[in-house]
UniProtKB/TrEMBL annotation:
InterPro entries: UDP_GlcNAc_Epimerase_2_dom, WecB-like. Belongs to the UDP-N-acetylglucosamine 2-epimerase family. Gene3D superfamilies: Glycogen Phosphorylase B (3.40.50.2000). Keywords: Isomerase. This is UDP-N-acetylglucosamine 2-epimerase (non-hydrolyzing). GO terms for molecular function: UDP-N-acetylglucosamine 2-epimerase activity. It comes from Flavobacterium urumqiense. The keyword Isomerase applies. SUPFAM superfamilies: UDP-Glycosyltransferase/glycogen phosphorylase (SSF53756). Its EC number is 5.1.3.14. Transmembrane segments: none annotated. Residues 22-364 form the UDP-N-acetylglucosamine 2-epimerase domain.
Length: 376
C-alpha cells in the first residue's frame, strides 16, 4: 500500500510526525508532501522529527489570500498525486491544506484518511476558516480517525458510516511523550532550551502565552496584551510569550509588550523548547488547539482566549477554562490560578494516552491484509 502524508503547518507536522515514524516502522511505503503553508515554523518541526519531505510545494507567500492559497494547493498537489498515485492520502485536522488536498484526491478517485476527524463548533465563523475546512474534509474522507468519543459522535450525527470511523486518541500526545523522553534524556542538550534557561528568572511563576487565531486579530489581541500588562505588575510572575509570526499578531504584541518588566517576548520556539516551557509553566494562556490537548498530560491549567472550543473535553474535565478576550476576565482568571491553583490530582488526559499512531497503523495494516485476502 502506497501512502502519501500531506500537511502544511506547524501543528499538523507535530501531529503527523509520530504517525510517519510508525508507518515507516511497519515498513509501509510512505511518502511526505508538504505545502509549507507555514514555512519557518514547519521547518523547525521537520528538523526535530527528522522528516525529509519527498515533495515540498513551498506555497507560503506573504499576504496570500485563502482563495489564492487554495487554488495554488489544488494545482500543485494535482501534479504530485498524479505522479505518486497513492492508494491512500492522509491529511490532518482543519487547515486549507487538508481541505484542498482531500478535494484533489477525491477528483482523482484516491482514498482519503482524515486524522483528527470530527472536531466541531458548528459555527462556521469560529474558528474561520477551520470549522468549514474540517466539515468539508469529513464529507470527502473515506476513513475518519477521531481523537475522542465526542468527535466520533459528531460524525455519527452527521451520517458518517460507523465502520469508517476509528477512534484512536490524538497523535499529539504521541509526539509530546516522545519529545519529553528526548529532552529528559541526560545526554540530550538543546541550545534553545539552554538559552531559555539563561534568560528566564528562577523562582517566579511562569505564565506561558501563545495566540494565532484570526477570530482574535485586532481587539482580541489588544485586550490580551492589556491583561498581561496588568498581571506583569506582580513580582512573582514571569510572562513568557513566543509570538506567532503572523504580522496581525506580531505587530500588536511587540508594540504593546516589548521591553516591559516581567514580560519575555521571543520568536516561536522549536517544539522541544516549547514542551520544556510548558513543563516549567504554572499556567498557559492560549487560543491554540494543540496546547489545550497537550497541557493535561503535563498537569498544567489552560485559559483559552476563545468563547467556543471544538475541544470541549478539557473544559468538561476541568483542565481548561474558556475565558474569551475581555481584558478583566482574562486578568482575573490568571490571578485566580496564580493564587489558588494547587495542582490536578492524577490527571488523565481526555485527548489520548500516546498510542494513537499505533492504533491508526494497526487499522491500516488490518485493512490492507483484508483487501489482499479479499475479505470484507
Ligand atoms: N508550539 C511550538 N512552538 C511555539 C508554540 C507552540 O512548537 O512557539 C506547538 C505546541 O506545543 C502545539 C502546536 O505548536 O503542539 C500548536 O500550534 P498552533 O497553536 O500554531 O496551532 P493549533 O494547535 O491551534 O492548530
Amino acid at each position: 500500500m502506497q501512502i502519501l502524508l500531506c500537511f502544511g503547518t506547524r501543528p499538523e507536522a507535530i501531529k503527523m510526525a509520530p504517525l510517519y515514524h510508525e508507518l515507516k516502522k511497519n515498513n509501509l511505503d510512505v511518502k511526505v508532501c508538504v505545502t509549507a503553508q507555514h514555512r519557518e515554523m514547519l521547518d523547525q518541526v521537520l528538523d526535530f522529527f527528522d522528516i525529509v519531505p519527498d515533495y515540498d510545494l513551498n506555497l507560503m507567500q506573504h499576504n496570500q489570500t485563502l482563495n489564492i492559497l487554495s487554488a495554488n494547493i489544488l494545482s500543485k498537489i494535482d501534479e504530485v498525486l498524479t505522479a505518486v498515485k497513492p492508494d491512500l492520502v492522509l491529511v490532518h485536522g482543519d487547515t486549507t491544506t487538508s481541505a484542498m488536498v482531500a478535494l484533489a484526491a477525491f477528483h482523482l478517485a484516491i482514498k482519503v484518511g482524515h486524522v483528527e476527524a470530527g472536531l466541531r463548533t458548528y459555527n462556521k465563523n469560529a474558528p474561520f476558516p477551520e470549522e468549514i475546512n474540517r466539515q468539508f474534509t469529513s464529507r470527502i474522507a473515506d476513513i475518519h480517525f477521531t481523537p475522542t468519543a465526542a468527535a466520533t459522535q459528531n460524525l455519527l450525527k452527521e451520517g458518517i458510516i460507523e465502520a469508517t470511523i476509528v477512534e484512536t486518541g490524538n497523535t499529539v500526545i504521541d509526539a509530546l511523550l516522545w519529545t519529553i523522553d528526548k529532552i529528559e534524556d541526560e545526554h540530550y542538550s538543546h541550545l534553545e532550551i539552554e538559552n531559555l534557561k539563561k534568560i528566564l528568572p528562577a523562582n517566579k511563576k511562569i505564565v506561558l502565552v501563545t495566540g494565532h487565531r484570526r477570530e482574535n486579530f485586532g481587539e482580541g489581541f489588544i485586550n490580551l496584551c492589556d491583561a498581561l500588562l496588568s498581571v506583569s505588575a506582580r513580582d512573582d510572575v514571569a510572562i513568557v510569550y513566543p509570538v506567532h509570526l503572523n504580522p496581525n499578531v506580531k505587530d500588536v504584541v511587540y508594540e504593546k509588550l516589548a521591553n516591559k518588566d516581567n514580560i519575555y517576548l521571543v520568536p516561536p520556539v522549536s517544539y522541544p523548547a516549547f514542551v520544556w516551557l510548558m513543563q516549567q509553566s504554572y499556567l498557559i494562556v492560549t487560543d491554540s488547539g494543540g496546547i489545550q490537548e497537550e497541557a493535561p498530560t503535563l498537569g498544567k491549567p489552560v485559559l483559552v482566549t476563545r468563547t467556543v472550543s471544538e475541544r470541549p473535553e478539557g473544559v468538561i474535565d476541568g483542565f481548561s477554562i474558556l475565558v474569551g478576550t475581555e481584558q478583566q476576565i482574562i486578568k482575573d482568571n490568571i490571578v485566580a490560578i496564580l493564587d489558588y491553583f494547587a495542582g490536578f490530582k492524577n490527571p488523565i488526559n481526555p485527548y489520548g494516552q500516546g498510542d494513537a499512531s499505533h492504533k491508526i497503523v494497526t487499522f491500516l495494516l488490518n485493512q490492507n491484509q483484508n483487501e489482499d485476502t479479499g475479505s470484507c
